[in-house]
Amino acid sequence: MRKSISFTIILGVTLLYACGGNTSTAAATTENSNPSTYDPNRGEGKFTPENVTVGAALDVTMATTGEAIAGTKCTSCHKLTGEKLVGPGWKAVTERRKPEWIMNFITNPDPMIDKDPAVQAALELCLVRMPNQSLSDVDARNVLEFMRKNDGVK
Amino acid sequence: MNKSIGLISLSALALVLMLGSCKPKNTANAVSGDAASKVYVAPGKYDELYNFVSGGFSGQMSVYGLPSGRLLRVIPIFSVDPEKGWGYSEETKPMLNTSHGFVPWDDLHHVQLSKTNGEQDGRWVFGNANNTPRVARIDLKTFRTAEIIELPNSAGNHSSPFITENTEYVVAGTRFSVPPDDANGDVAISSYKKNFKGTLSFISVGKEDGKMDIAFQIQCPGVNFDLSRAGKGKSHGWFFFSCYNTEQANTLLEVNASQKDKDFVMAVNWKKAEEYIKAGKGKKQAVRYAHNTYSDITHTATSEIKTEVTVLDSKEFADICYFIPCPKSPHGCDVDPTGEYIVGSGKLAALIPVFSFDKIQKAIADKAYDGDYQGIPVIKYEAALYGEVKKPGLGPLHTEFDAKGNAYTSMFVSSEIVKWSIKDLKVLDRVPTYYSVGHLCVPGGDTKTPYGKYLIAYNKITKDRYLPTGPELAQSAQLYDISGDKMQMILDFPTIGEPHYAQAAPADLIRNNGQLKIFKIEDNKHPYVTKGEADSKVVREGNKVHIYMTSIRSHFSPDNIEGVKMGDEVYFHITNLEQDWDVPHGFAVKGASNAELLIMPGETSTLKWTPDKVGMFPIYCTDFCSALHQEMQGYVRVSPAGSTVPLTFSLNKAVPEDK
User: Fold this and answer.
1) Exposure on the CB side of residue B526, measured as CA atoms within 13 A
2) Is A134 close to B531, i.e. CB distance below 8 A?
3) CB distance from B630 to chain A under 8 Å?
4) Percentage of chain A surpassing pLDDT 90?
5) Residue B432's CB: how many other CB atoms inside 10 A?
6) Mean pLDDT, chain B, as a whole number?
7) Engineering a disulfide at B566: which of A21, B59, B588, B641 sits with its beta carbon 3.0 to 4.6 angstroms away?
8) Selected residue of B553, B557, B651 to mutate for chain A interface (largest A Cβ count, 10 A)
């Protein structure tokens, strides 16, 4: 009789403890995937419509620099056409995506892969998470300009 | 019914436990109930300390987390490591070059973390090669070997790589005395006393870049130099070396080098030696030794053979070297945090002598000498002695210190650690080790401000401590909590190779030192770098075929190569284009007689391959890199010598199928 009581108590404590652990995990998960804080137009990162400005005309110097950076860090996996290689082709990306979204995705891919519904859909097709290629903010802006050039901005 | 069976088995268990506790030195009586909580580091949490452990005859250094005892990394240093391509890639082969040519193995005994003002600074860790005498410097931003320097006039570099309080010098005292390198070594072994010399090397270390250079050597009588420690604080400027075989035996040292009641600790005034060198008093000696450095910019090592050292002859300068008698066959020679006390550990002595730096200085001023040993003054034992720890145990080897004025000495023969008070030389506590402890480590235990808290024993014998694995058993370390008055054993953990000395440092000191996560591809100056797939190519130069290849998740460029012929030497120069932490790519080619490459993000590595037969040779990535890792592969076609197959290379090129 006494044995079964103590067993019950131990079991109870164990269960309580286990529940505590589960609760905190659940809370963390909820926080991470809270849809109200993720903006699929802007993405997640330091760039906003306010701090990324894109001119009507192409900045040729920036685009040329961006092309060289892309050659080292991007085009192993992205074609300049619409064809998928490892990742999606770049054609028309600047029409599909806001400039700040592109900049955020280049410089902060991991959280966006976890949260952005469109990126998650692309991951199901590509199966390779886009790596963080350690582009500086300036590098990313130059690559964006090259993408604009690729999309016909003059 | 069930319950009573349970009761019976419980009683049986208790009985077994009780029986077990009757056996002396059993695990059960050495570990108390809260040990597990003291060493448990939850999944995803970091350890409190890094522990850098010598790998002994593995030639490498291992890095453990403490208090968990989890193995974090094995740093290849003096032995080839096919897993990491160390000594197999064209870039790393020069690191193992010596005056004897390429040496693929060594025996690493001691480690030293770099210091500033007598405290750990988290920049580098040094290791010694015992067999072919060398000292290595490991960069703690990359956990890779950055530099290896060979030591002329030396053999059995055991008394090494101990450092001064600002890492001004790393020392290397020769264990084997040998004829100097510029003398004819083809002499009778029985001419030991006449022809053999002991050499101490002082290797300067660049303040900013850590670059090593043999600043000078001191030629000493032909004895065996065993271990050493730099002075600190008041004794900064001095070095202390233990010496055995002052009998100068050259055979059956076990007996013949154990004749005298006392050997020596040698005190060396290196500041004074430095002055003599600056004044041009050193003699230039023709020697040959290799100096190898690795560049994180070219990702390539270079080996230079140097041809000269500057040597001071100890007996020509009256005020550099002094012998202090030390009972008996001293091994450890350790300096306490204040720099005042020098602890000698005579392997065969039944006491531990503690010398006083102040008394040594006074003895020198008063010329309180007992004559000389081969031209070097011998200070009177009592004139240097602070006191003796009586009956500490059997076979004292090494001593480390905490911040509370306590010393901890390992006892090899009696398999225990003895804690004693430096001030009154009284034994305070003793705990068993399992078994035959050699070195021990208190985090920061050789600095001015020991971190304390833990003590790690590195044991020579494990016998019944782990599941048996045939004739060769796990090597092991044991962790003790020393925060209280009584030492408490809290963990066993196995180690690689054979652990000798080790050091430990607070994790934050190293993980916040600017740890490198990737090599920036922009900064890569490797002569065969490929910065982007557009530049990947294959170039023939006579019978040498250079393949400029890139890797990124998850393909190589190019991945189809044809036109390689028998008789060609093929060089795969692989650049990892990834710029993200923790994404190395591997590379292997079927039949290669060396190893794989393991290429870090932004790095270029080269595998040389001489095809041995005609046919199709697959290549693939060996480090699981993505969901499509298994697709990361390619082919190299090898044709007969004189074949007309043109040299071509491609990636994803639509070519009409050749029927």
Assistant:
1) 27
2) no
3) no
4) 75
5) 19
6) 94
7) B641
8) B553
Cβ-contact B545, B570 below 8 angstroms: yes
Report yes or no: B161 and B170 within 8 Å, Cβ to Cβ: yes
pTM as predicted: 0.90
Q: How close does chain A come to B140, measured CA to CA in Å?
A: 22
| pLDDT one-digit tens code per residue, B87-123 | 999 999 999 999 999 999 999 999 999 999 999 999 9
Give this complex's ipTM.
0.79
Query: Residues of A with CB below 8 A from B3's CB?
Result: 3
Secondary structure letter of residue B534 according to DSSP: G
Burial status of residue A38 (CB atoms within 10 A of its CB: 0-12, 13-18, 19 or more): middle
Q: Determine contact, residues B598/B584, Cβ cutoff 8 Å.
A: yes
CA B622 to chain centroid, in Å, comes to 28
Give me the pLDDT at residue B657, please.
75
Dist. CA A151–CA B189, nearest whole Å: 82
Which tokens sit at B300?
A: 């390539």
Count Cβ neighbours within 10 Å for each residue of B186-200 and write b for 16 or more, e otherwise.
eeeeeebeebbbbbb
What is d(CA A124, CA A105) in angstroms, rounded to the nearest whole number?
17
Q: Considering only alpha carbons, which residue of chain A is nearest residue B652?
A: A85
Interface mutation vs chain B, best among A134, A135, A143, most B CBs within 10 Å: A134
Residues from chain B that touch A73, judged by Cβ atoms under 8 A, are: 521, 532, 577, 579
Contact residues on chain B for A134, CB-CB shorter than 8 A: 518, 520, 579-580
Question: How close does chain A come to B48, measured CA to CA in Å?
Answer: 24
φ and ψ of B473, to 5 deg: -105, 165
Residues 6+ apart with CB under 8 A from B646: B562, B563
H/E run at residue B589: strand B585-589
Residue with tokens 């660049």: B206
| Chain A residue numbers touching B621 (CB-CB < 8 A) | none
Taking the C-alpha atoms of A21, A22, A23 and A29 in order, what is their torsion angle to the nearest 10 degrees? 110
Smallest Cα distance from B530 to chain A, Å: 9
CA proximity to B53, closest of B44, B62, B45: B62
Interface test with A, best of B10, B575, B578 (most A CBs within 10 A): B578
Residue of chain B whose alpha carbon sits nearest to that of A4 = B3
What is the pLDDT at residue A7? 42
In this prediction, residue A17 has a pLDDT band, given cuts at 50, 70 and 90, of very low
List the structure tokens of B503. Answer: 């050091």
Domains, chain B? 395-516 (2.130.10.10), 528-650 (2.60.40.420)
**Cα radius of gyration (chain B):** 28
Model pLDDT for residues B482-505, shown as the tens digit of each residue: 999 999 999 999 999 999 999 999
Contact B553 A86 (CB under 8 A): yes
Can you tell me the distance from the alpha carbon of B290 to that of B132, in angstroms, rounded to the nearest whole number? 11
**pLDDT tens-digit series, residues B215-241:** 999 999 999 999 999 999 999 999 999
Residue A121 backbone dihedrals phi, psi, to 5 degrees:
-65, -40
Model pLDDT for residues B342-393, shown as the tens digit of each residue: 999 998 889 999 999 999 999 999 999 999 999 999 999 999 999 999 999 9
d(CA B383, CA B407): 22
The answer to which of B303-307, B347-351, B372-376, B549-553 has the lowest mean pLDDT is B347-351
Q: Determine the Cα–Cα distance for residues B256 and A145; give it in Å rounded to an integer.
A: 80
The answer to whether B47 and B70 have CB atoms below 8 angstroms apart is: yes
- Please tell me which of the candidates A3, A73, A132 has its beta carbon nearest to residue B577: A73
The amino acid present at A6, given as its one-letter code, is: S
Neighbours of A1 (CB within 10 A): 4
Distance of alpha carbon B649 from the chain centroid: 44
